[in-house]
Design goal:
This protein is of the alpha+beta class. Helix content is 32%, strand content 38%.
């Protein structure tokens, strides 16, 4: 009987890879009393940086506008280095696309809130995100695109 190695999933490092804060219409924007509209965009990227070692970056962009005028723009690239070994190939993408962003999100939420406060505005509190639903939606979109490109459905 051969002994199979146990799966390994470990956080090696969590860090801010990129942070940008812009208040293009300061100081006049602080005198505007109209309530701004806030939009939030999330994006994840993954790259292998060694055998069984991956960097996952969760980029969070928060834009606040009054009509067409930008009040503030905050972009945070919250990254982590994760060691993943002895995990079946079919589990790698979900692990890196769901589990890792779930770990990074609370850090990104704190950085966004802190940056917005330091820029002179009320904090933006990001609501929890269902990264599994986002992953499944992206997977569905890829399958639809593949089906449209080949003219037939692909089964996985």
């Amino acid at each position: 009987m051969s002994e199979q190695e146990n799966p390994v999933f470990a956080i090696e490092k969590i860090y801010i890879k990129d942070l940008s804060v812009e208040v293009p219409h300061a100081p006049q924007i602080f005198l505007d009393r109209e309530a701004p509209k806030v939009s939030i965009q999330l994006q994840t990227s993954t790259q292998g940086i060694g055998e069984g070692v991956y960097e996952v970056t969760l980029t969070t962009t928060v834009t606040s506008k009054i009509e067409e005028k930008t009040v503030f723009l905050v972009e945070v690239g919250q990254a982590g280095i994760f060691r993943v070994q002895n995990v079946p190939d079919e589990n790698m993408e979900p692990l890196l696309s769901i589990a890792c962003p779930n770990i990074l999100f609370p850090y990104a939420r704190e950085v966004v809130s802190d940056a917005v406060i330091r820029a002179g505005f009320a904090p933006v509190l990001l609501q929890p995100v269902n990264f599994e639903a986002l992953y499944m939606s992206r997977l569905e979109q890829r399958q639809e695109a593949a089906k449209d490109a080949t003219g037939e459905a692909t089964i996985q």
